[in-house]
Amino acid sequence: MQKQTIFILFAFIIAMSACKTETTMNTNPFFNEYEAPFGVAPFSEIKPEHFKPAFEAGIKEQQQNIALIVENVNKPTFENTVEALEYSGPLLTKVSSVFYNLTSANTNDELKEIAKEIAPLISKQNDDIYLNEDLFKRIKTLYDNKEELSLSGEQAMLLEKSYEAFVRGGANLPAESKDEFRKVNEELSLLTLKFGDNILNETNDYKLVIENEEDLAGLTKGQIDAAAKTAKDNGQEGKWIFTTQNSSIFPFLQNSSNRELREELFKAYINRGDNGNEFDNKENIKKIVSLRLKRAQLLGYKNHASFILEKNMAKTPEVVNAKLAFLMEKSLRMAKQEIADMQKIIDAEDGGFELEPWDWWFYAEKVKKEKFDLDESEIRPYFELKNVVDGIFYTANQLYGLQFEKRTDLPTPHPDAMSFDVKEADGAHVGILFMDLHPRESKRGGAWMSSYRKQEVKEGKTIAPIITMVCNFTSPTEDTPALLSYDEVTTLFHEFGHALHGLLSNCQYSTLSGTAVPRDFVELPSQVMEHWAAQPELLKVYGKHYQTGEVIPDELIAKIQNSAKFNQGFVTTEYLAAAILDMNYHTMTQPLEMDPNDFEKESLVKMNLMPEIVSRYRSTYFNHIFSGGYSAGYYAYIWSAILDSDAFQAFRENGIFDQETAIKFRRNVLEKGGTEDPMLLYKNFRGAEPDEKALLNDRGLI
């Protein structure tokens, strides 16, 4: 009788537990099918407390699916091993895509804490997969016998990349090294997270508060109104606040005639992560660089750069360093002439001081006005954000027949975000595009494209992508819409190029689809789009005065085109300085023991960087390489620039909206993802390898 009572009680507890689990699952959006059109996530229903249970359940689900692969008594096949691994973690993919996009674009303290808890779990999960000897044995058996498998080209590529992922993930390490490898990965996952959080906190903490109206001299009405709005939003109505967000600091540096305030704001910007406070990143850098080196050497590589570049187009650090040195020599020569032009104006108009880094934007603007009769304040009124968005959509329509239908019935990642249903010319659904374009304290700086769902074909059904573009453009004010600088216009075109790469993907497997290509190829679709921004034919489509509706006049278009190569010495030099700094950190063969500031100074001296120019990213806020995915890869922008300048030459030759050229680019680049070797894809489009002369001409370096 007692045993029966205990059994009944135990059964009741189990039943209640099951009910509780079912209730929890039903209230957690990740455990249910999304009901919104196109399978868009119900963002407003997702709460911070939903993430950790969903991550844990997703990890468990994948572990169970991995066990089924390993325990399969049948001999390995592509379907029961490689394809089964590809589809092993649907819930984990589902929750990860939402979580990591939100922590970049709409984070808070709660999400930051969850990220710290999740990072080691994800690191362990990845290591558990790639260090699983039985699973690797099945993958290796297939890889060793791949010629006998009758695989399609994409299947063969997935097998190859799966095998490489295991080898690069430590599968061949001796048993005594695997624990050490795991510890390195776990520590890196937390350090890179901390680095990014520190930069966001530093950016949000600093505010230049101006109380006297005379200190606003030189600024445009739009800039002053935006600063007043920022002050009001921060509870300081009647004052003006400028921040280290790009949309705030660079217009200030460009226009403010108050040199002391320019210096203060500029130094606040370049000293982020280097203030000796709780957000200081110097020790994080030392640990990250040294741990990456340790991991690379465990895997048998000389340094981290050798490990990374092996899978890129460049292949070796020597190739990258030679290319960067060649370009740096040319850009330095031009930058020196630009300095001389600005110093001449200083001596004639102001006198008494030498050009400093915080003076560059201010006096470069004066040179541009003197040489080309072009003032940035002339341009902005013609670049209302809404019109520029219409311009990029028009471009995609003319090139690829795409249509963009604005939707107001879809959940969005943030109330500021817009959503669009992207369709083919015949109305067929392509995917969903989100645009989240203005800065806020919950969003990291910069601009990027990402995906909430990647394109793939599953069980014969095409899964359409859900893509997001995130930027930090000048915000509208009470009486003025968002007016973009020309630099912001090109940034919008750039990110839209990435978005098209994700939207137009036509691949079988998500691992290979969209932007899943080598780092030095991924910037081709984005950077080639920038070329359209300055084409007169297109400027007349999106360049309309926000007040009068007047189309941008030919005279102003001519000025924009004539000034296209202006300041390219500076732009290229500051970029190359950062790219070389990245390579210097990641070609080290010994742990980094010296202070990163000293290491940086030594690097800049060796590359002959003049004191008037600061590296585009100083070490302590170099998110791309210490928190993003560009370690030993920041050179990719200039590498891809060689590709994009040469690629756009095809459109120059045939017409900027030539259908045949556009279709060749779509079929051979945008649709292919990482299913083929990138140089082969490029040659299939262009007919030959890229000629770097196109880049040198575009930038005026020859």
In a nutshell, what does this entry contain?
The chain has 702 residues and is mainly alpha-helical. The chain contains 28 helices and nine strands.
Q: What is the CATH domain class of the largest domain?
A: Mainly Alpha
What CATH calls the topology of the largest domain is Neurolysin, domain 3
Q: What's the end-to-end separation, in Å?
A: 95 Å
Roughly how many Å is the radius of gyration?
26 Å
Task: Estimate percent helicity.
Answer: 55-70%
Order of strands across the biggest sheet?
3-4-5-9-6
Number of helices: 28
Identify the overall geometry.
globular
Please report which band the strand proportion falls in: under 5%, 5-15%, 15-25%, 25-35%, 35-45% or over 45%. Answer: 5-15%
Question: What brief labels describe this structure?
Answer:
702 residues; mainly alpha; Glutathione S-transferase Yfyf (Class Pi), Chain A, domain 2; five-stranded mixed β-sheet; 58% helix
SSE topology sketch:
Layout: H1 2-27, H2 48-70, H3 78-86, H4 90-105, H5 109-130, H6 133-144, H7 153-168, H8 175-205, E1 208-210, H9 221-233, E2 240-242, H10 246-255, H11 259-270, H12 282-298, H13 304-309, H14 317-350, H15 360-372, H16 376-379, H17 385-400, E3 403-407, E4 418-423, E5 429-436, E6 448-453, E7 456-458, E8 461-463, E9 466-470, H18 486-503, H19 519-533, H20 536-542, H21 554-562, H22 568-586, H23 596-606, H24 623-626, H25 636-654, H26 659-670, H27 678-686, H28 693-698
Parallel strand pairs: 5-9
Antiparallel strand pairs: 1-2, 3-4, 4-5, 6-9, 7-8
